[in-house]
Amino acid sequence: MAFHFIAIMGQYEEGQRIGWHYASEGRLDKEYIATFFEKVEDECGPVEFGIHKLSTKDTTWNSVVQKDSYFKDVFISQDMDRFIAAICLRR
Q: Which of 12, 61, 83, 86 lies 20 to 30 Å from 44 when distance is taken between CA atoms?
């Protein structure tokens, strides 16, 4: 079983949702997730996210979309720094 943490940017103007996806076959690393939020705050200031946690059969993004079609149109990044740079540009 795989566990997923997904942060989707709460406000966007281009009509496209963007998100950061972190997945693990074991427990999610809470310190890694805390680092994500700290880096966002340090580099972009306050940002509102929709936060989602779920489990699927594997760590792929496709498994998330197969489980819940809500995520099908989210442009996802698994690279924390790249995602943070993208959201800072949108603010």
A: 61
